[in-house]
Structures are given as C-alpha cells and as structure tokens.
UniProtKB/TrEMBL annotation:
UniProt superkingdom: Eukaryota
Keywords: Methyltransferase, S-adenosyl-L-methionine, Transferase
Protein name listed in UniProt: MT21C methyltransferase
CDD domains, sorted: AdoMet_MTases
One protein family per Pfam: Methyltransf_16
A biological process term (GO) from this entry: methylation
Native source species: Thinocorus orbignyianus
The keyword S-adenosyl-L-methionine belongs to this UniProt entry's keyword annotation: yes
GO function terms (MF aspect): methyltransferase activity
Amino acid sequence: SLTDSPVILKILQNWVPRVSHYFDKEHYTYVGHQIVIQESIEHFGAVVWPGALALSQYLESNQEQFNLKDKKVLEIGAGTGLVSIVACILGAYVTATDLPEVLENLSYNISRNTQNMNMHKPEVRKLVWGEGLNEDFPVSTYHYDFLLATDVVYHHTALDSLLATMAYFCKPGTVLLWANKFRFSTDYEFLEKLCNIFNVTILAEFPESNVKLLKATVREN
C-alpha cells in the first residue's frame, strides 16, 4: 500500500554537462558504462527528465530486487532512451517506444550506446498511447516482465490513453516501474486512477527533485 515508507533518495550528479548551442550531449555513468545522450530542444521527448535519472539510478542500485537480466522490458515514452540503455546494460531484452517524431533521436542514442556490447540488441518501435495496441503488440505474442515509464505524466491530454496503455501491457506477472516529477494536481489525480486499478507502492522519493518512484502490479482476482 502507499502507506509503506518509501526510501528517501537523492538524484546523484553523476554526469558532466557539455553544452553546445543546439544539440546537447549529456554524459552519464551507470553500471560502469559511460552513456552519451543527445538531446534535442525541439521535442519534450528529446530531453532527459529527472524521472529518467531517478529510475536509472534505482535500477542500478537495486539489481537484486529488480533483476533485469534476460527479462523482457518495454519502455513507454522512452524519450532520449537513457532508461532503456541502462536496462540493456543490465541484461534485459528491451523494446523502447515513443511517438514517431522522437524515434530518430531515440534510435540514434540507443544504437550508439549499446553497439559493440555483449548484450541483447534493443528494439525501437513507434507506440502512440492507446492506439493500435492490439495490432502492433498482440497479447498472444507480447508479454513483458517489466513496463518502464518516466515523466510520462505532465500537462497533456493523453492521460486516459496512457492509463489504458499501462493497463494493456500490465498482465499478471508484469511489474510497472513509474518515476515521475509530481508538480500538478493532474499528477496526483493520475496516481489516484492508477491506484484504482493496480496494486501500487511508492518505492522511493527524491524530495529535492519532487520525484516519486512507484511500483504497480495488476490486481489478480
């Protein structure tokens, strides 16, 4: 339940900012690997948000609790791909998804940071929340051990579609890990809706960044 006390953490400054006028390349280190992320100022999805840093850090530090090795992992709203890259390094079969306009930068970051490594080759796919799920990801074929989402809830109109997408992919046995910066009442309203359909626990809070990391699993009747 949400009453269990979450771990209080701080997002560690484990990257070196390098500034250029258009494409920012951010350098991070997770699980002993340097990860270089190209950001684009044109899209929300092309910037590394604090939830992605929080979840990456948490996955790195809690490999016994959440062992991703050889697990099937789907990231929705993957953005720049940082979390998917970390999941890859941790040994998962990763499918990173986002809107069509973000995929080029996402693919670039993922291939650049995972090539020449002894790991499962990640896949990048288009996924528009709530659209064509049965056609593109039929239940008979696709089952994921983990569903990852970071900073997917903010001021936008697709929250019902997002919830429907989470519900679609969360089958019995799937663990949803969602990290988000909580700023607006809409963020808390979404959390309330999530609690109505899933078993939800707050795993960690990062108070300085207003980020909460939640774990959700489907209620089995």
